[in-house]
Specification:
With 207 residues, the chain is an alpha+beta fold. The protein has 2 domains: 16-115, no CATH class; 140-206. It has helices spanning 16-23, 126-138, 142-155, 167-183, 185-206; strands at residues 48-55, 58-64, 71-73, 76-78, 80-85. Strands 1-2-5 form a 3-stranded antiparallel β-sheet, with no helix packed on it. Strands 3-4 form a two-stranded antiparallel sheet. A hairpin with a 2-residue loop joins strand 1 and strand 2 (58-64). Helix 3 (142-155) runs parallel beside helix 5 (185-206). It is elongated and about 65 Å long.
């Protein structure tokens, strides 16, 4: 297997007007990256591009010119713009369905994304996470779903308090549970509810 090709190292910062526009898009797929990196191949020609947001079936790309160059859009000169682009149709397997698809826009310069280094994972938006969690829940077998539902029912009631751990132990457990919430989305809601309860009690003890 050949080494992945290097990415362009150009970066830029989202401008407030761009952030405002992107936040207004429906069905966002990920949290905004404040300082996006160009996702084209190293030493590519032309403009830099980075996926700003995927909204439903639309992909919005930030396009910016290198150096002091200008872009022309609708008869106006500018140094950058947000542009909706179609997805690149290329796939690593040639379209057989068992390989990675190119994540760049159609007509991009340089290599396809599956031949290059990754620009890094994006944090899914709340809406996207909800869809993923629903899909994960649907994939559970009968026993796993019963166990999850039992835990949810236990957390639905307060229960009787039991002095089993110290305050310091509670702090450690709360921290560990918070980390689990990031690693296991299926358990995230349960974990966050426990963390919220323990945090409330710890704050009460502090006063």
């Amino acid at each position: 297997m050949s080494e992945p090709l290097p990415l362009c190292d150009a970066r830029t910062d989202l401008k407030p007007i761009e952030v405002l526009f992107l936040h207004q898009l429906p069905e966002p797929s990920h949290e905004l990256v404040e300082s996006p990196r160009c996702e084209l191949q190293h030493e590519h020609t032309g403009v830099h591009i980075s996926l700003a947001q995927a909204s439903g079936l639309d992909s919005w790309w930030l396009v910016w010119a290198p150096g002091n160059a200008q872009l022309t859009a609708r008869g106006q000169n500018m140094d950058r713009r947000l542009h909706k682009m179609d997805d690149c149709p290329a796939a690593e397997d040639g379209g057989r369905g068992d390989g990675d698809e190119c994540l760049l826009p159609a007509g991009h310069t340089g290599a396809h994304s599956f031949a290059m280094q990754s620009s890094g994972p994006r944090v899914p938006s709340a809406a996207a996470r909800k869809k993923m969690l629903h899909a994960l829940r649907e994939s559970l077998d009968e026993d796993e779903r019963a166990e999850l539902e039992e835990m949810e029912s236990l957390l639905a009631s307060q229960g009787e308090p039991m002095p089993l751990i110290t305050r310091n132990e509670a702090l450690v457990v709360t921290t560990l549970l918070g980390q689990v919430a990031h690693d296991d989305w299926l358990m995230e809601d349960l974990v966050l509810r426990i963390v919220e309860r323990m945090d409330t009690r710890l704050q009460a003890l502090a006063h």
